Amino acid sequence: MSKSLSNAIQDIRHTDKHTIPVDGPNIYKLIAKINTSIIEAVILTVPDKYIIDIKLDSIKESYLTSYNIDPNNGWIISKKDIDVDDIPF
């Protein structure tokens, strides 16, 4: 029992030089990569819950109708007051 514990402690001492130091920027890169991998796994596991299929033409038509913009006219003639809460991003 004590020999296996001593070997485990010896292994920890020898692996210290091969570990990522906590005070450097590499630990934050590692955490970001792990978090991104977890999020990607969750999204790809149930894509119907997180990914929606919207056609770009329907988004364009929605903006054109909500802001009364004529797509054939290169200039916007009238200015409508824009509420910031209506902007989706």
Task: Compile the SSE list and pairings.
Layout: H1 2-15, H2 26-45, H3 47-50, H4 56-66
Provide a descriptive summary of the structure in words:
The structure is a single chain. The chain has one domain. The chain is elongated, with a radius of gyration of 28 Å. Helices cover 55% and strands 0% of the residues. It is built from four helices and no strands.
Task: Describe the structure using short key phrases.
89 residues, mainly alpha, 4 helices, elongated
What separation lies between the terminal Cα atoms? 61 Å
CA radius of gyration: 28 Å
Q: Structural class from helices and strands?
A: mainly alpha
Helix-strand pattern: HHHH
Number of strands: 0
Roughly what is the average pLDDT, rounded to an integer?
Answer: 77
Query: Strand-residue fraction?
Result: under 5%
Poorly predicted runs of 5 or more residues: none
**How many individual helices?**
4
Largest sheet: none
Helix content: 55-70%
In one word, what is the shape? elongated
Total discrete domains: 1
Oligomeric nature of the chains: single chain
Care to give the gist of this entry?
This protein is mostly helical and 89 residues long. 55% of the residues lie in helices and 0% in strands.
